[in-house]
From TrEMBL:
InterPro entries named among the record's database cross-references: HATPase_C_sf, HATPase_dom, His_kinase_dom, HisK_dim/P_dom, HisK_dim/P_sf, HssS/ArlS-like, Sig_transdc_His_kin/Pase_MprB
Gene3D superfamilies in the record: 1.10.287.130, Histidine kinase-like ATPase, C-terminal domain
Source organism superkingdom: Bacteria
Keywords: ATP-binding, Cell membrane, Kinase, Membrane, Nucleotide-binding, Phosphoprotein, Transferase, Transmembrane, Transmembrane helix, Two-component regulatory system
Cellular localization per UniProt: Cell membrane
Source organism (scientific name): Virgibacillus profundi
Catalysed reactions listed for this entry: ATP + protein L-histidine = ADP + protein N-phospho-L-histidine
Topology with respect to the bilayer: Multi-pass membrane protein
CC annotations in GO: plasma membrane
Predominant place of localization: membrane
Residue intervals of the Histidine kinase domain: 88-299
Name of the protein in its database record: histidine kinase
């Protein structure tokens, strides 16, 4: 009987010590969490002796801390991007607005009809630039919505390309270099959206006029289940391209920002191509810059929408 009582007493003492130890561990974890929260510390929960249950609790706490820090870093990154976006847009919109105001003031003061007309034409050019900036921003914002989709159908890609090239005929004439076209005569059908495809071509060609020089070469290539178009041109001497960022928003390789570009053009190209289940990439060989667009080939009568 005495032995049983001694064993029971020993078990009680051990259990009490174990509970006190547990309480100490939990209190220590609480103190560490309080310190981390108060000081915004990057430390993790640590303890020298970890029973199984306490060890799992610490692992879960550290996982939560790690995830929270990753979210915080992502939030900081997004905040910096938003601030950079605001600065970029403010500059891009303010510059043509300032020029617009200046030309209107000059037109108002001028007494010569020809000179007044010239200032009005310049003001109209700035208005078009502002409309383009706002339009690109609106389209880019819309494309970032994961729920936004394009209605895909068989499109004659050659017809769209030729129509787009024709719309730039005056720009090519001013540039002094006609495009070098290596394209098939027959119609080629892809799964796409006609309006989106027009915008893709327009942005790529506009990018050539802003940043390229010499002749623009457009080459067609056909693979088993896709068609590719390669847009190749020389780069201006001062152009330095970061290919990791070329399709990201507001990317500009020209820090002087004198071309009134939002830096959204190629980002919109990539977003639209992605929506049409295609792909786009850029490459540089020597001084030859090339943008390649790949889209899914289809038959004219195939009306299934993806």
């Amino acid at each position: 009987m005495l032995v049983a009582l001694l064993l029971l007493a020993a078990a009680f003492i051990i259990q009490t010590v174990y509970i006190m130890y547990y309480r100490k561990q939990i209190r220590d974890i609480g103190n560490q969490l309080s310190f981390i929260s108060k000081h915004n510390s990057f430390k993790f929960i640590q303890t020298q002796i970890k029973p199984k249950e306490i060890s799992r609790l610490i692992d879960l706490c550290n996982t939560l801390l790690r995830n929270q820090r990753e979210l915080n870093q992502e939030f900081i990154k997004k905040s910096e991007e938003i601030n950079a976006t605001i600065v970029s847009l403010s500059h891009d919109i303010r510059t043509p607005i300032t020029s617009l105001d200046g030309y209107l003031q000059l037109a108002k003061r001028s007494e010569d009809f020809k000179e007044k007309t010239q200032y009005v034409v310049m003001a109209e050019t700035r208005i078009k630039q502002i409309n383009t900036l706002v339009d690109e921003l609106f389209l880019y914002t819309k494309l970032q919505n994961p729920d936004y989709s394009l209605e895909l159908e068989p499109i004659d890609i050659m017809n769209v390309l030729k129509r787009c090239l024709f719309s730039f005929i005056e720009a090519f004439s001013r540039n002094g270099d006609e495009p070098n076209l290596n394209l098939p005569e027959s119609s080629i059908y892809i799964r796409g959206n006609e309006s989106a495809l027009e915008r893709v071509y327009e942005n790529i060609i506009r990018n050539y006029f802003l940043h390229g020089k010499g002749v623009l070469t457009i080459r067609y290539e056909e693979k088993e289940n896709e068609v590719l178009f390669h847009f190749t041109n020389l780069l201006k001497q001062s152009q330095l391209i970061n290919f990791d960022k070329i399709f990201t928003r507001f990317y500009k390789e020209d820090p002087s920002r004198t071309n009134h570009s939002t830096g959204l053009g190629l980002s919109i190209v990539k977003s639209l191509i992605d929506k049409m289940n295609g792909s786009v990439h850029a490459d540089l060989k020597g001084n030859q810059f090339c943008i390649s667009v790949a889209l899914i080939k289809t038959e004219k009568g195939n009306e299934d929408v993806r």
